Amino acid sequence: MSDPLHERDQAAAALDLVNRAAGPYLDGLADRPVHDRSLDGLIDELDGPLPVKGDGTLAGVERLLRVGTEAATHSSGPRFFHLVVGGSTPAAMAGDWTASLLDQVTGLWVTSPLAARVETIVLGWLKEMFGLPASYGGVLTPSATFAHVTGLACARQWWAERHGVDVVSEGLAGLPRMPVFSSGLVHASTRKALQVLGCGRDTLRTFSRDEGGRLDPAALEAALEALGGAPAVVVANLGDVNTGDSDPIAGMADLAERYGAWLHVDGAFGMFAALSPRTAHLARGVERADSVTADGHKWLNVPYESGFSFVRDPAVMGRAFGSWGSAYLPDGGPGEINYNMLGPESSRRARAFPIWATLRAYGREGHREMVERHLDVAAHLALLVERAPDLELLAPSRLCITCFRYRPPGVPENRLDDLNARLGEALLADGRVYAGTSTYRGMTVFRPATLNWRTTEADVELLVEVLRELGARLTAG
Ligand SMILES: *Cc1c(COP(=O)(O)O)cnc(C)c1O
């Protein structure tokens, strides 16, 4: 085989292969282990020298599907509790396939008014869901990390302008370090964004009043006051990865206002607290932030990759990311938004389609119900942990996260970290259920996150069962 032009009549047949694999794959997700290491060897079938003559469309796709459906980590199934990972609702997945089918050049109005308008539509819907003013600017990003880069680049632009410097043309040279303050709940990706932006990851200072990383508001205020009126950036965290805990956003918004600071909110998954009356109070104050980060591939249950950045003053986005200065890139006319001038990407896919599809299919109510089911599942897990004599709950379940460790009677405290780390490895090797470990208040802990639309109480019951079974085996041996 050679030139794909000779195979143009195979395009629909190739997609039909994917379609026929999809049913059995998706139906099987509930029953299969999250990962079966004995199947990793199959990946060899994708290796080898670059083919000189290709296999042809159907044979190539067939091989990828055969290996992929077996050797994949089935993280879109109901028992992947590692990191903070959502699934993909049926409508979102179909919307994502549509994005591939239509393959829109997304970023400039002229190349796809369809993709640009749908991006505007979903950003409007998301602002409404999150309680953000409609006047906020926004852009879809690949992830929360990229949304941080977007929001913090806007913060940096604003901050440098306050020092009389246009950082887009002049860079950071000659400026002092940009002060960035947060609590100990801050996520590693905030530092990564600061490092990418040339601000330096260590410019971030955290003010915590306890080992769990919760904010010390007085210390934050003292740091802001000590700047003597110089501008600063405050990062508030809505939903942390260890326990789901949140900073007092409204209080931080008060401080930011009082000291003229830029308030950036990391609501990667926590932003979805705004959907339920049970948790909406946690998000109060977000509507006063200067920039807000959230993810689509987490609690919205849209496939990877999907994130969003919102910025109070849309003009700052244009200053931070426009100014291409390239004659072949057309400006948009009135009402024609070029989204690649509002964020770090140039070429991009129609990331809005899966978001549109899931919001259109299930609406605000459907997504609220899903979020509330996950609150219940996390609470159920906390109850199971409390009842188990060999498990220790370390924080109340908050949002979709439950933090605990394995603590069988008789094992001394100084051996627990090692035991939990080994149990974590055993859990991943077992593969029936996936959850990762972290460090919380100096302890090695499990912090499963339950935010996949497929996940129910039975799935966390299996997590507890498998952990206790493997734990008993480790302590017996
Ligand atoms: C996951 C997460 C991030 C980073 O998100 P990506 O989409 O992986 O870039 C940032 N902050 C918090 C609180 C997160 O949970």
UniProtKB/TrEMBL annotation:
Its required cofactor(s), as named, are:
pyridoxal 5'-phosphate
The modified positions for N6-(pyridoxal phosphate)lysine read: 298
Q: A Pfam family in this protein?
A: Pyridoxal_deC
Please list the GO biological process terms of this entry: amino acid metabolic process; carboxylic acid metabolic process
Q: For this protein, what is any one GO molecular function term?
A: aromatic-L-amino-acid decarboxylase activity
Give the protein's recorded name. Answer: Glutamate/tyrosine decarboxylase-like PLP-dependent enzyme
Indicate whether Lyase appears among the record's keywords.
yes
Q: Which UniProt keywords apply?
A: Decarboxylase, Lyase, Pyridoxal phosphate
